[in-house]
Amino acid sequence: EKVILLLGPTGSGKTTMLKWLENELRGERDLSIFFMSKAPKDEKELIEQLNHHISRFRLLRWIPFLRSHIRNTSEIVPKLKRKFGEKRLVILVDEAHEAGIEALRWLRVIGDHANVTIILSALPVFEGQLQAKLETLRKRVSTRIVLRRLEKEIEVKELIEKRIKLVSDGEGKNPFTESAIRKIFEISGGFPREILRLCN
């Protein structure tokens, strides 16, 4: 798929999901994964981030004339095609609602002309921003995933237990009583980040 939209309010787990995806996809031989933790504000930032990703794979990247870096926007697609060939480049963009319109426009161009999948993680307002300023990108979204708050106490309990297992290499036990979990659910509103903050 070319463009995937991952939407959710603050604390719903968007960054966690992107990092999970990054880890899951890293083992795929026909993929190159690029995680943008900071959405680019303009074309210059986009080029800088792409160059950083490209240079990670060059053994002699510190020798200027051997660098295959991108110098301007017209070089983005040809250089990506040359660099990754048949490999699919998966670009994970966190906080996409903070990206500049020109950077998003060029991400759309990359998606149209290169072997790329772009996953944009953003606050729900991002869809309205796209509709108002970049409808051409919004129309290219093939999958839309919305993360919501947890709606049941049992889900909160499962999240807590999974987190404890993760940080204790499977050895830890859930110290919270059913009434404590109920209170955590009430106070947190079911948002994962807030649940974990309260538990900590």
Walk me through the topology.
Elements: E1 3-7, H1 14-25, E2 31-36, H2 43-55, H3 76-84, E3 88-93, H4 101-113, E4 116-122, H5 125-133, H6 135-138, E5 141-146, H7 153-167, H8 178-188, H9 192-199
Parallel strand pairs: 1-4, 1-5, 2-3, 3-4
What key phrases describe this protein's structure?
200 residues; alpha/beta; five-stranded parallel sheet; 5 strands
Question: Can you tell me about this structure?
Answer:
Helices cover 47% and strands 15% of the residues. With 200 residues, it is of the alpha/beta class. The protein has a 5-stranded parallel sheet, sandwiched between helices. β3, α4 and β4 (116-122) form a beta-alpha-beta unit. The model has no long low-confidence stretch (mean pLDDT 89).
DSSP summary, beta strand count: 5
Strand content: 15-25%
Overall pLDDT level: 89
Net shape: elongated
Largest sheet: 5 strands, parallel
Radius of gyration: 20 Å
Q: Number of helical runs?
A: 9
Strand order of the largest sheet: 2-3-4-1-5
What fraction, in percent, of the residue positions are helical? 40-55%
Distance between the termini: 38 Å
- What is the ordering of alpha helices and beta strands? EHEHHEHEHHEHHH
Q: In a few lines, what is going on in this structure?
A:
This protein is of the alpha/beta class and 200 residues long. The protein has helices at residues 14-25, 43-55, 76-84, 101-113, 125-133, 135-138, 153-167, 178-188, 192-199; strands spanning 3-7, 31-36, 88-93, 116-122, 141-146.
